[in-house]
Design a protein that fits this description.
The chain has a domain at 68-220. The strands form two sheets. The chain has a four-stranded antiparallel sheet with strand order 1-2-3-5. The chain is α+β, with helices and mostly antiparallel strands and 221 residues long. The chain is 36% helix and 17% strand. The chain has helices at 68-76, 96-101, 119-128, 140-155, 161-167, 178-208, and strands at residues 33-38, 49-53, 59-61, 85-91, 115-116, 132-138, 214-220. Bound molecules: zinc ion (ZN). Zinc ion binds next to loops.
Length: 221
């Protein structure tokens, strides 16, 4: 049956229809995950694919997609999951800094945990553990530090340059070469203060708009 333009049926494409069969699922809501970004370059955080859930916004490294229980465990961290009330912090992937930074977002550094949730994803994960969020605060100081590193990452050849160089993992003879290393030293020194000012400005506005980069959630049963 041929339908003309007038008779054409339109419907929203379900997320399911756009997914590759067998693709990983969001630990918070169960919808398929889609590629958000790919990092390339130097160092341990490079060459990773980061997926994002189009439904709840949770972001996760493709290599380490946890199941729901593991995601809840990671979210709660050291907090006792049997406690009546828990308080925990998380990087917010529905933040201004995640959007600005994308693959340069400071929260994607290795060792910071596999999942980057959103307040919505946190609510869904907590529900699976029989809990609900009572209070969500956007932490200005922690968010500004993360925004600052994100802005610096946009300018330097090596992400997390100062921390990597100070730790000894990155030197003039490693990474992207001597010239890039020297350039990053100059850029970091010259840009440190102006970008700190911008970080305060941007993150201050983001916190007011509830788009801060770091959330602290108080949850209870
Ligand atoms: Zn989801």
């Amino acid at each position: 049956m041929a339908l003309g333009i007038r008779g054409r049926k339109t419907h929203a494409v379900a997320l399911e229809e756009g997914a590759v069969p067998g693709s990983p699922r969001c630990p918070a809501c169960g919808e398929p995950l889609f590629v958000w970004l790919k990092t390339e370059g130097w160092g341990p955080r490079e060459d990773q694919i980061v997926d994002r859930c189009e439904n709840c916004g949770l972001a996760v490294s493709r290599d380490t997609v946890p199941d729901a229980d593991a995601a809840i465990g990671e979210l709660l961290g050291d907090a006792d999951p049997r406690a009546e009330e828990v308080v925990f912090r998380a990087a917010n992937s529905a933040s201004l800094q995640a959007w600005l930074g994308a693959e340069n977002w400071a929260a994607l550094r290795p060792g910071d945990g596999a999942i980057k949730p959103t307040p919505r994803a946190i609510e869904l994960l907590l529900a699976k553990a029989g809990m609900e969020p009572r209070r969500t605060r956007y932490l200005a100081a922690a968010g500004m530090a993360s925004m600052w590193q994100t802005l610096l990452n946009l300018l330097t050849f090596h992400r997390d340059f100062a921390a990597e160089a100070a730790s000894g993992r990155l030197g003039p003879g490693t990474g992207r070469g001597r010239a890039a290393f020297s350039m990053d030293v100059v850029v970091t020194v010259l840009a440190a203060i102006p970008t700190a000012g911008l970080a305060v400005l941007f993150e201050g506005a983001a916190v007011l708009a509830r788009r801060g980069g770091v959330v602290e959630v108080t949850a209870s049963r």
